[in-house]
Every structure is written in C-alpha cells, then in structure tokens.
Amino acid sequence: MAHTAMSGDGTTADDDPLQTAVWRLRSRACWADAAALLVPTTPDTALQRASLLVERCLYTETGWEEAEDALRTAEALAHSDDERGAAACERGYLAYAATLFRVRDRADEARAALGRAAALIAPGAAGRALLDFRRGLIAGATAQADPLLLSGTWRHLAGLALRDGELAEARHGFAESLRIREELGYLVGTAPALVSLADTETEPEASRLREEAHRLFRLLGGVPTWLAAQLSPPTPGAATV
C-alpha cells in the first residue's frame, strides 16, 4: 500500500484519523514519529511504515538501517502480487536513494527491484503510477488522482524544461508543483519547490522565494539536508529529490 499510504492519505477531512496524524507528522519532517504510529502487523501498515522511513532517507541522508529493517518486515508480510510489487517498488526506491547520495552503488539493485515490481503490478492498478514515475515513465502518472505524485511529476517535467532552456514552461511547472505542495501542507517538500521556482524568476521575486525557502528550512531543522547546498552558491552535481 505504499503507493497510496505515501501519496496523500490523511490530507482531507474525510480521511481516517490515524492517516491524518501520520500525514501531519510526515509533512513536517517527523518521519520517525509518524512511523511509530503504525504497528507493522499487516501488509498495508508494514509497507506504509517502510515507505515513511525510506522517504526519510531521501530527505535526511540518514536512517538507512531502519529503513532496511522496516522494508524486510514489509517484504515478509507481503503475499498478493500487488503487495509484493509495492514492496519491490520501495526496495528499488531505497536502492536508488543509496546510489543517489553515494552511500553505496545499488543502481543494479534498483533497476532489478523496479523491474520486478513492474512484473507484479498490473497496468492501471493503484500502485502503477508511482512505479512508473519511479522508473521514469512520467506520462501515465498525471492521470492518477494523486496530488503529491502529480506535484512530483510537475517538478520533474519543469526540470527537463529548464534543462532545455524553456524558461516559461519550467516556471509554470515549478509553480504548479509548489501550489500543490502548499495546498497539501507538505512543508518538507515546499522549501525545495520554492528554490526551484526561484531559479526561474527574476528579482526581486527570486530573492523573496529563496528567503521563504530559508525560513522553512530553518523551521524544519535543516531538512532536507541536501537543500543547504542549493540555498548557498550552487555546487555542480548536487543531488536533489
């Protein structure tokens, strides 16, 4: 269930109170506290807990062993194709993160795990959009009713546009990504969105966006850790999410 549990559950008034509490903690960079609310006794809760701890790795570059342990528990509890596919998707994402931040080169493991997930999660299934996004197959993701995933899709497409020199298109994409994250109250993802949008703006708007990103960055105790480099003079090759 990582595809739904980590993609906006708890963001509306009709959601389960537990999911609302998990979302509020997650959006404020309190992944360990959010994970502590979930007892990993079922495939769904075990996978959601693992997903939270994997996401923490992406934003803090720490907690790798805890994420591995949680993921092993989720894998052990998974029985259906969808459950095993979702666990494989998280396995691939964790391996990708370890490679991205140079903890260990696990690129082959990431590709294998995501390929295994693709064989288990049927096209059109609930978890397929997240899997396709993680595999770089962006086109299908925007069709899903998943605002956080849609925000990531906008961000990725805007990054491609910026790389190609399409400044107006990049600005629109980053603005849409930021809007969605602000509407969701996803604070930990808002500061990076502000910085990205600032890169497409002129002064004084660019400075205003960066100042707001600085404020959120300090509020969350310096998370995401990798954003510090982007709030300073840019370093070539810096990893971002």
Quick recap of the structure?
With 241 residues, the protein is mostly helical.
Description:
With 241 residues, this protein is mainly alpha-helical. The protein folds into 2 domains: 2-139; 146-231, Serine Threonine Protein Phosphatase 5, Tetratricopeptide repeat, CATH 1.25.40. Helix content is 67%, strand content 0%. It has helices at 2-5, 17-27, 31-36, 43-60, 64-77, 81-100, 107-120, 128-134, 147-163, 167-184, 187-198, 205-219, 227-231. The longest helix has 20 residues, at 81-100.
Helix-strand blueprint:
Elements: H1 2-5, H2 17-27, H3 31-36, H4 43-60, H5 64-77, H6 81-100, H7 107-120, H8 128-134, H9 147-163, H10 167-184, H11 187-198, H12 205-219, H13 227-231
Helix pairs in contact: 4-5, 4-6, 5-6, 6-7, 9-10, 10-11, 11-12
The main pleated sheet reads as:
none
Number of helices: 13
What general form does the structure show? globular
- Helix amount: 55-70%
